[in-house]
Amino acid sequence: MALSVSSVVLLGILVVVLIKGGYVRIGSALTCTLFGFTLAATGLAPAINSGLASLAGLISSL
Fold first, then answer.
1. How confident is the model at residue 4 (pLDDT cuts 50, 70, 90)?
2. How far is CA 54 from CA 30, 36, 46, 58, 59, in A?
């Protein structure tokens, strides 16, 4: 049985762990989040989504 986890949830958990661990400050995390939203509105969004889908396919085939 395949278990699929949304990349948004996975990356959100990673950000929370990094903030709690003291590796990333809240300001830096918010800046990266805003950069992600801005990047999603550009022409690079389809290429990024395609790359993430390919990576997910590669990981699920292991």
1. low
2. 27, 19, 12, 6, 9
**Residues 43-46: contacts with CB under 8 Å, at least 24 apart:** none
- Angle subtended at Cα 4 by Cα 13 and Cα 24, rounded to the nearest 5 degrees: 15
- Give the pLDDT band (50/70/90) at residue 49: confident
pTM of this prediction?
A: 0.60
> Quick one: CA torsion of 4, 38, 45, 10, rounded to 10 degrees?
-10
Long-range contacts of 35-41 (CB under 8 A, 24+ apart): none
CA end-to-end distance (rounded Å), the chain: 14
